[in-house]
Design goal:
This is S-Ena type endospore appendage. It holds the Pfam family Enas. It comes from Alicyclobacillus fodiniaquatilis. By secondary structure, this protein is mostly beta strands. It contains no helices and nine strands.
């Protein structure tokens, strides 16, 4: 997230007020699951996921939202694909590549605005 004159830029949008906007790049290698986000409480979030480039052997990446070890929902992203999402009630986001070897990889970005439950 970066600052710009007259507001804050997050996920490519310029806003006057941004609360807990997360924007980062990710890398998935082979078929080893990788946690890219973990919260200490249950959150809901809206955002975008994008796969920007895959090596030839990486067919797609599965992005799973879960609470504990229970999957809430998941998305499959092929090379240069993206999706918008709103997911309610999760604490972890995990990437799993689908490739025959660890030498294969995919890169992408995650932009999201999490919201937390009130106590």
């Amino acid at each position: 997230m970066g600052c710009s004159q007259g507001g804050t830029a997050c996920c490519g949008l310029r806003r006057e007020i941004v609360q807990d906007c997360l924007e980062f790049k990710w890398l998935a290698s082979g078929s080893t699951p990788q946690t890219i986000y973990h919260a200490t409480e249950i959150v809901s979030a809206s955002g975008t996921l994008q796969a920007t480039s895959n090596t030839v052997g990486m067919t797609h990446v599965t992005v799973a939202f879960s609470i504990g070890s229970t999957a809430v929902t998941s998305f499959n992203l092929g090379n240069k694909e993206s999706t918008a999402f709103t997911v309610v009630g999760f604490d972890t986001i995990t990437l799993t590549g689908h490739a025959p070897s660890q030498a294969e990889s995919a890169t992408g970005t995650l932009c999201m605005t999490p919201r937390y439950e009130l106590f």
